[in-house]
Amino acid sequence: MTNRIATRTRATKETDITVTLDLDGTGKAKISTGIGFLDHMLEGFAKHSLIDLEVTAKGDLHIDMHHTTEDVGIVMGLAVADALGDAKGIARFGHAYVPMDETLTRASLDISKRPYLIWKVAFPRDKVGEMDTELFKEWFHAFATNSGMCLHVENLYGDNSHHIAESCFKALAKAFDIATMIDPRRAGETPSTKGSLGS
Q: Which CDD domains does UniProt cross-reference here (predicted)?
């Protein structure tokens, strides 16, 4: 099996971001975005998806956290797409339910190269720590779009905004781990009756 490792860098007037990831890692993470809660979520994503992930981001946080959050999602998605390559041999589909105290969240995904996001998540509060809760959708949309993933995330119930956000990232991580796993029965075949992924 070839190494499924990629590095992506993206620099704009708003952010400067570098992401390195290994889809066949052990869950190691080195995250520095300048946004403490986002760092915490990405560390959890790496741990539970078993990817090795390094993210370094410098953004215009003196304005707000929007550009940095969205652009980290973009660059991570691009790195995932690079690491997957033609996606031969992968399971392709994944889903997971993740409970966290009073909260339960479901994530279902298809690495189809036809990106889409369904986001059925509502937060009781406007912020978790210093981070606006509306920014979580921005990250998930950017990640799904740029990785070529059809992703459905639904918070089935929950009262605590921290738990809701964290269960979304962990559910994505578990579903992502399943979908990107190499299935030896596929013998390097593209997981599609069309013979290729994408439109």
A: IGPD
Closest-CA residue to 98 (of 12, 165, 11, 146): 165
Rg of the Cα trace of the chain?
16
The span from the CA of 4 to the CA of 89, in Å, is 12
**Which residues in the chain come in under a pLDDT of 70?**
1, 188-199
In the chain, where the domains are located: 5-186
- 0.85 surpassed by pTM: yes
Q: Are strands 127-128 and 52-59 parallel, antiparallel or unpaired?
A: unpaired
**b/e sequence 26-59, b meaning 16+ C-beta within 10 Å:** ebebebebebebbbbbbbbbbbbbbbbbbbbbeb
